[in-house]
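Subject: sequence -> structure tokens, single chain

Hey, anyone have a minute? Need the predicted structure for the following. Not urgent.
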Amino acid sequence: MKVLNIDSLQDLEAGAARFVTLTAGHKKFAFSGEMGSGKTTLIKAICKQLGAADTITSPTFALVNEYRTLSGELLYHFDLYRINRLEELYDLGYEEYFFGDAWVFVEWAEKGEDLIPGFFVPVHMEDLGNGRREVRIDL
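Reply:
Had a minute. Here:
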């Protein structure tokens, strides 16, 4: 397990860069953590570090947002918070996203854990107070 500490929003960009370095060789991530722990904010910063050409927004209502990096790589950002049934992921065609070659970031992964493959890297975020976050990466 690797632990990444982000001490403030000013440290976010550097934290996202460290995340990319620590997880080199992996492209699929399953994020968990309480509401407000910083999952969306960190994923946005990671996508920016990877070279996302678009403005990154939360996929809470769309379930998934698709982005491309400047080099043409695909990035998928899922938010499963509003999922009520796993069938919603089947309807979305999750297999194409999860088993393809693209980068995949899943927030609220615990809501879809029965469908998330074992090769996804578990990432747990915790709000430590005063703007500090702890990111545990289960490599």
